[in-house]
Amino acid sequence: MGLDDDLRQQSLTVQEEQYAAEPPAVMDRMPLMKDLKPRERFMVALFIFLDVTILGFGCLLAAGKMMP
Predict the structure, then answer these.
(1) Burial of 36 (0-12, 13-18, 19+ CB in 10 A)
(2) Domain spans of the chain?
(3) What pLDDT, in 10s, does the model give residues 14-41?
């Protein structure tokens, strides 16, 4: 029983440490975006949005689910 209790206690300690630590900021998780100015970040987001929209529209056209 002693080994089980030790493992359980270690597991609880690790979980508490993980929850106590603050999650990294968005800019720390995306180093590429850290060096961009706000206007440049907006342009990247806009281009990604347009890319997804155009590809989705093209897929719907190719599948015959939408008529132009």
Answers:
(1) middle
(2) 25-68
(3) 777 777 767 777 777 777 778 889 999 9
How far apart are alpha carbons 65 and 50 in whole angstroms? Answer: 20
Tokens of 13: 């300690």
Cα 48 from Cα 45, distance rounded (Å): 5
Contact between 35 and 29 (Cβ < 8 Å): no
pTM, two decimals, is 0.55
Only one residue has tokens 């949005």, namely 49
24: left (phi over 0), alpha (psi -120 to 50) or beta: beta
